[in-house]
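for ur thesis appendix - Putative malate oxidoreductase [NAD]. copy paste whatever u need, i formatted it the way the template wanted (i think)
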Amino acid sequence: MPSQDYEQDTSTRFGPLRIKARGRAVMSNPTTNRGTAFTIEERKALGLIGLVPSQVTNLENQVRRVYEQYTRTSTRLGKYLHLSGVRDRNEVLFYRLLTSNLEEMLPIVYTPTIGEAIERFSHEFSRPRGVFLSIDHPESMADAFRNFGLGPDEVDLVVVTDSEGILGIGDQGIGGIQIAVGKLSVYTAAAGIHPRRAIPVVLDVGTDNLGLLSSEMYLGERHARVRGEKYDEFLDLFVHTVREMFPNAMLHWEDFGTTNAHRMLTKYRDEICTFNDDIQGTAAVVLAAILAAVDVTGLVLDDHKVCVFGAGSAGVGIANLVRDAMLRTGASETEEEAYSRFYAIGINGLYVDDQPELLPFQRPYARRRAEVEHWAVADPNHITLEDVIRNAKPTILIGTSTRGGAFSRHIVEEMASYCARPIIFPLSNPTSRAEATPADLLTWTDGRALVATGSPFGPVDYDGIRYQIAQANNALIFPGLGLGVATCRAERVTEGMIAAAAEALASMVNAYRQGAPLLPTMSDLRMVSATVAVAVAKQAEREGLAREPLTDPIQQIYNRMWQPVYPPVEAI
Ligand SMILES: NC(=O)c1ccc[n+]([C@@H]2O[C@H](COP(=O)([O-])OP(=O)(O)OC[C@H]3O[C@@H](n4cnc5c(N)ncnc54)[C@H](O)[C@@H]3O)[C@@H](O)[C@H]2O)c1
Ligand SMILES: O=C(O)C[C@H](O)C(=O)O
Ligand SMILES: [Mg+2]
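the 3d part is after this line
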């Protein structure tokens, strides 16, 4: 983090690091520290002689050493803590290790291990990272950001959560800071967003998690979650403080609860440059996977009916983007026709228009009671997923319900009985929440299911074919989106930009071969993110929202991507 120890212009990729500190202070700051990789000249200039072992190494050698330590750590949480330790010591080394082993380490610094790190936050706490804002002290908000130390032109991104809907594990109180930290690791590793041009934030509005409230270790405010007017005022103060203090930053919302996620996005999307990852990022990645799968089915989007099981923030976000695609491609002529292709299910069953509990953003997906009256169901007041499958025969089944194992053998076999290539995406995270495993889905459908998941799953061997499982995680979208927005300094994030991101991702897929994944793999994340970034920036410019002209988009995007290498050092 910024300090009195050094100066660096972070707006260019390899700006020299001008170090003011001397001696041990150099090594206790993860930005200035490079351990044994300091050359003899640098050691002399920075007062490090005698403070490091004699051998001068280099970044590759350091990566080998920390990788060896990493592989010796046996638990996933242990690996997470090991990597956090590396990050706290040496920023470049951490990102070099991560980018060189992205596919292997993403499941550690991000989904699914991040879920464990969040749950264990108050127990494993060591060095805090990010900004903690308490609803009990709104007067301290601007101070908190000032203490973080970045100036108005030095921030591209603010990632914020209020922790109410962390992955599929619900209210995690103050521990939610780790999802913001995790998303930022992915922004940097995948899209080269400068690690010091982003701020992770948790809004500590209390928690309804009684386990946390009754734990003596818990580090957040000890009261129930604040809601209503006071919550809205706090959020308003937050949005306006960010806008004033960091006018160029994109505000990324993560893992808010269902009642607030869509509401906040609707409230602020036309006012500031903002994006909700669970709603829009997820929708873009899932649309890309659906388009790839639809191609494989040999049908057109028009021929499909979609069942969204768990139609909350992510589920309705996906439905909205697929609905728009249906309208754009002419699959549906009217909005009403497009809506009629969806069956949305929540905790109380299929959405029907006489259910008072539906939120405004869910209501357009409610079926008319008259329409489902003749269905054969056990309880008309709770029409289950099984009822929907049997009566409506959807061909695409999306799971964003947080309910692990909900796609049972019976349900999947029923779907496979009327549909040659059922498209089934169990998207809930972390792994334990996935609605089904790919191995089960492929076995139950005799290899016919077209599958994508939210958490990473290894390949499945079935009947002599190896099936690569696409990870339909918003990580394929948000880093590129953020990079595109930062490069052209977009004023807003529009639906057009989200659709452009989805199309760019879809264009990178060829899923015709049996067993091929429906999306690019995470090992291609840097290339994917750069491609998404170019598409997003071009779309922003097309919509007149780019404040920075795009003269040479590919070069501009590439120039912007920070690389984990030691920058030239000057002792000042
Ligand atoms: N793959 C991805 O990139 C991605 C992105 C966002 C969210 N997700 C996952 O999707 C899940 C939901 O996230 P969200 O942000 O939309 O949460 P949310 O709370 O807004 O939505 C969950 C919805 O599921 C419904 N639900 C809960 N239990 C159910 C049950 N037993 N039967 C039917 N419906 C049920 C709820 O009523 C709610 O509408 C989480 O597990 C999250 O990890 C995945
Ligand atoms: O964080 C993820 O892995 C994806 C998504 O944002 C989620 O909430 O599950
Ligand atoms: Mg999320």
